[in-house]
Design brief:
Blueprint: E1 12-17, E2 20-25, H1 36-50, E3 57-62, H2 73-78, H3 80-100, E4 105-109, E5 112-114, H4 116-122, E6 126-130, E7 134-136, H5 150-158, H6 160-169, E8 173-174, H7 175-181, E9 186-188, H8 193-205, H9 209-221, H10 227-242, H11 245-255
Parallel strand pairs: 2-3, 3-4, 4-6, 5-7, 6-9
Antiparallel strand pairs: 1-2, 7-8
Helix pairs in contact: 1-3, 4-5, 5-6, 9-10
Length: 265
Amino acid sequence: MKSAVVQPPPPLLLEREGAVATLCFNRPGALNAIDVPMAQAFLAAVQSIAADPSVRAVVLRGSGKGFMAGGDLATLRAQPVQGAIDILTPLNQALPLLAQMNAPVIAQVHGVAAGAGLSLMLMADYVLVAEGTRFNLAYINLGTSCDVGASWALPRLVGLRNALEIALLGEAFTADDALRLGLVNRVVPADGLDAAARAMAERFAAGPTQAYGAMKRLMRDALERSLPEQLSAEAVAFVQCAATQDFRRGVDAFHARQSPQFKGL
């Protein structure tokens, strides 16, 4: 009699609860280090939620003791060049989808966020961190430059001088340091992280989803435009939002002195 084949757990879990989609990195034995299957699963999950207008908030989190320790060094040691290509190609397809989608993206971070884990965190729209979390960009300690959008996001968040210090020194820093630098939005007690992330996701999921998307794109693209270009982009986005049902709901609720009930439409 043949014994049953035990299937390994999926490297990434996609969960839905109402309008909130949660992507959970699921290699806890490796501190959720990204290998090729995880990168491919991440792209597939992001493509799925990007194509689903019923998703109105997204949470990124890690299973086990940390958010993510970075790229999988076993893969990169065995095949330095091809391994890097195979991991980065799907990640680099997924990240613009996250940035451009209407749904706000929350990073729920605990334990450790290093290398690609920190880079992914930086690309989120809102970041909640548990007390005691440790961060390190870490790439320079392996003799490589950064990836997964870190060189784009980091100087925008903390300025060039601070970004270079974080990148070139490769030193660990704390949750309080991250808050002071503007890398994260809130630091919460570790036992309250799940509840805080859930509350924020539900708040976003009840908001004007198309307006969130317009705001995200305006903010992310602003540094690439002149003032006249940005004013024009703002006008286009405002007019598009003014044509939505949620705008009418918001205006009507304001005049009625009530809280608006947005539907994401």
